[in-house]
C-alpha cells in the first residue's frame, strides 16, 4: 500500500537580506584529496533585487516581479516610458557543521541554528541568476600553483549584465569562526569578470553549467572546464576552455582582481523584464497575447550574437528567453541541451560549426505546455536526463531517444531547478515555485544492466517522496549539501531559498 510523501521540517532558517534565487553547494569532500582545509559543507547563496528608480510625473510606474500568484499589483508590460531599474545582488557563503549539531529529533529545539553559520557576504554587484562550482586551475597559468589557503574549486556566477564573475574560495585561519572547532572561516575573492555576448542593455545571463561534474576530487588540480550559459535574448554562450579564455593574450575586456561592475540598470527591454528570468506559468499566457498582436520582445529585436572574446561561441538557440542549458555529463563536453520560453527542448552537438551566430540543433522536442526552465543530466546514470517546465511536469528523457519523455510526474507547480543527488542515483531535488520543494524518488531499475537499455524499459517510476513547504514565497534555489562520507546523515541535508520572503532554510530530505 502506497503512502503519501513525508513533510520535511526546517532545521535552520535565516533572512537572506535581498530576494534569494540561487544556491550552489560545494560538491566535494576534499579531505579525501589530501586537502588540509575541510571545504565540504559550504554552500553559496545568490540574490537578485530589483530596485525601481523614482519615476517622473510623465512615467508610468512598473510593478514588481511577476509571480503568477494573484498579486494585488497589476502587472504592466515594459515600455519606453518605464522607469529605470537597478538589478543588484550579493553572494552569501554559509558553512554547515557536522550532522550531530543539526537537531535530528525536532526542528523546534533551541540549538537547531547552531549547525549553520554565515561565513561571508560579498558587496553589492550585478544581480545573480545562477551559480556553479568548478575546478580552479583556470585562475593560474601553468607556471604557477594555487595559494595554500585556496580551495581546489572556485565559484562562477551568472550575472544580470550578461557577464560571468569568477571568485576563488579561501580559508581564513587567522579569523576564527564562532562555533567552528577547527578555528577556520572562509571568504570569496573575486578574480575575474567575463563579459559574454552582447552589448544590448537588459540582457541577463540566466543559467550556467560546467563540464567537470563527474571529476573526482583527487583530479581537480588537472582539470580545465567548459562552460555553457543561457541568456534572456534566446542565445547560448559556450566557453570551450575557461583556462584559455582567461589567460589568452587577446583578452581585452576580461578584468582581473577588480570589483565587478555595479548592478546594471536599463529601461525595461524584455518580455519578462520584471521577472529577471524568474517567472511562472502565467507569463506564458501574456506572451501568447503579445505574439498575436505581432509584437516581439525588444531584447530579441536588438540582440547581437557577437561574442566579446574570440574563444566564446554565441548562437541563437530559442525564439524567446533561453531559461536553461546543461552539459551531457557523459559526452566529454561535446553535447549540451537547452530549454526556452518557446516551449522547446533542444540538443546541440558542440563539435559542429557555429557561424554568424547560428548552429544547427540535433533535435527539437516540443512536447511542453510551458517554457522549459530546468534540466540536468544524471552524473551517475548515463543517458538519463531530468527536465522541468513551467507546466509543472517533471519529465525523464533517454538521451538516445530525446523526441519524447519516457516518464513524467506532476510537481504541483512550475519547476525552476532540478538537482540530482550527489551519490544516490534514485533521488532528485526539485524547486517547484508555488508548490515548494520536492524530493522525487525513482524506483531502482528492474534490469541489471539498465544503463545499457532504454530507460523506458527500466521502469524507474518517479514519485514524490518528500515535500518541504515552509517557505512562504516562490521556491527557486536549492541544492544538496555535501559532507564527509563519515557523516552519512548529512548527505540528506538540503539548502533552499525563496524569493519574496528572502529566506534560507536547511532541512533533511529523508
UniProtKB/TrEMBL annotation:
One GO cellular component term: cytoplasm
Single GO BP term: protein histidyl modification to diphthamide
Record's keyword terms, sorted: Hydrolase, Repeat, WD repeat
Comp. bias regions, Acidic residues: 280-294
Gene3D superfamilies, per database record: YVTN repeat-like/Quinoprotein amine dehydrogenase
Catalytic activity: diphthine methyl ester-[translation elongation factor 2] + H2O = diphthine-[translation elongation factor 2] + methanol + H(+)
Pathway assignment: Protein modification; peptidyl-diphthamide biosynthesis
Record flagged with keyword Hydrolase: yes
Keyword Hydrolase: yes
Enzyme class: hydrolase
SUPFAM superfamilies per UniProt: WD40 repeat-like (SSF50978)
GO molecular function: diphthine methylesterase activity
InterPro entries given in the database record: Diphthine_MTase, WD40/YVTN_repeat-like_dom_sf, WD40_repeat_dom_sf, WD40_rpt
EC number: 3.1.1.97
Region (Disordered): 50-89, 265-304
PANTHER family referenced in this protein's UniProt entry, alphabetically: DIPHTHINE METHYLTRANSFERASE
UniProt record similarity statement: Belongs to the DPH7 family.
Name this protein carries in UniProt: methylated diphthine methylhydrolase
Amino acid at each position: 500500500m502506497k503512502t503519501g510523501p513525508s513533510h520535511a521540517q526546517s532545521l535552520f532558517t535565516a533572512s537572506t537580506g535581498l530576494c534569494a534565487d540561487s544556491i550552489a553547494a560545494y560538491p566535494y569532500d576534499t579531505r579525501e584529496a589530501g586537502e588540509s582545509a575541510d571545504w565540504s559543507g559550504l554552500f553559496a547563496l545568490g540574490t537578485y533585487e530589483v530596485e525601481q528608480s523614482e519615476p517622473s510625473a510623465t512615467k508610468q510606474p512598473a510593478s514588481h516581479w511577476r509571480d503568477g500568484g494573484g498579486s494585488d499589483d497589476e502587472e504592466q508590460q515594459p515600455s519606453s516610458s518605464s522607469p529605470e531599474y537597478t538589478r543588484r545582488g550579493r553572494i552569501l557563503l554559509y558553512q554547515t557543521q557536522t550532522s550531530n549539531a543539526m537537531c535530528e529529533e525536532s526542528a523546534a529545539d533551541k540549538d537547531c541554528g547552531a549547525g549553520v553559520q554565515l561565513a561571508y557576504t560579498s558587496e553589492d554587484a550585478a544581480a545573480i541568476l545562477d551559480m556553479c562550482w568548478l575546478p580552479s586551475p583556470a585562475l593560474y597559468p601553468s607556471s604557477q600553483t594555487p595559494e595554500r589557503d585556496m580551495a581546489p574549486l572556485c565559484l562562477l556566477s551568472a550575472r544580470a549584465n550578461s557577464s560571468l564573475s569568477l571568485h576563488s574560495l579561501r580559508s581564513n585561519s587567522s579569523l576564527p569562526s564562532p562555533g567552528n572547532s577547527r578555528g577556520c572561516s572562509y571568504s570569496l575573492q573575486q578574480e575575474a569578470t567575463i563579459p559574454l555576448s552582447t552589448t544590448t542593455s537588459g540582457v541577463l545571463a540566466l543559467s550556467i553549467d560546467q563540464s567537470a561534474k563527474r571529476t573526482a576530487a583527487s583530479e581537480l588540480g588537472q582539470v580545465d572546464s567548459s562552460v555553457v550559459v543561457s541568456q534572456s535574448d534566446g542565445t547560448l554562450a559556450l566557453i570551450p576552455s575557461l583556462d584559455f579564455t582567461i589567460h589568452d593574450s587577446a583578452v581585452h575586456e576580461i578584468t582581473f582582481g577588480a570589483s565587478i561592475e555595479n548592478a546594471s540598470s536599463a529601461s525595461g527591454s524584455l518580455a519578462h523584464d520584471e521577472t529577471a528570468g524568474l517567472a511562472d506559468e502565467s507569463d506564458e499566457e501574456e506572451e501568447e497575447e503579445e505574439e498575436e498582436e505581432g509584437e516581439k520582445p525588444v531584447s530579441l529585436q536588438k540582440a547581437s550574437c557577437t561574442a566579446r572574446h574570440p574563444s566564446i561561441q554565441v548562437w541563437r538557440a530559442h525564439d524567446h528567453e533561453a531559461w536553461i542549458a546543461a552539459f551531457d555529463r557523459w559526452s566529454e563536453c561535446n553535447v549540451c541541451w537547452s530549454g526556452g520560453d518557446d516551449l522547446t527542448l533542444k540538443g546541440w552537438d558542440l563539435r559542429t560549426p557555429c557561424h554568424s551566430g547560428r548552429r544547427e540543433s540535433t533535435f527539437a522536442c516540443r512536447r511542453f505546455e510551458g517554457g522549459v526552465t530546468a534540466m540536468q543530466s544524471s552524473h551517475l546514470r548515463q543517458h538519463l536526463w531530468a527536465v522541468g517546465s513551467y507546466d509543472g511536469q517533471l519529465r525523464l528523457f533517454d538521451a538516445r531517444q530525446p523526441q519524447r519523455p519516457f516518464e513524467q510526474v506532476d510537481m504541483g507547480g512550475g519547476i525552476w531547478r532540478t538537482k540530482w543527488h550527489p551519490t544516490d542515483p534514485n533521488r532528485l531535488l526539485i524547486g517547484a515555485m508555488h508548490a515548494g520543494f520536492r524530493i522525487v524518488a525513482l524506483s531502482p531499475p528492474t534490469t541489471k544492466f539498465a544503463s545499457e537499455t532504454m530507460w523506458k524499459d527500466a521502469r524507474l517510476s518517479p514519485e514524490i517522496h518528500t515535500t518541504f513547504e515552509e517557505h512562504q514565497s516562490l521556491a527557486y534555489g536549492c541544492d544538496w549539501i555535501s559532507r564527509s562520507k563519515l557523516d552519512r546523515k548529512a548527505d540528506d541535508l538540503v539548502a533552499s531559498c525563496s524569493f519574496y520572503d528572502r529566506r534560507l532554510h536547511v532541512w533533511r530530505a529523508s
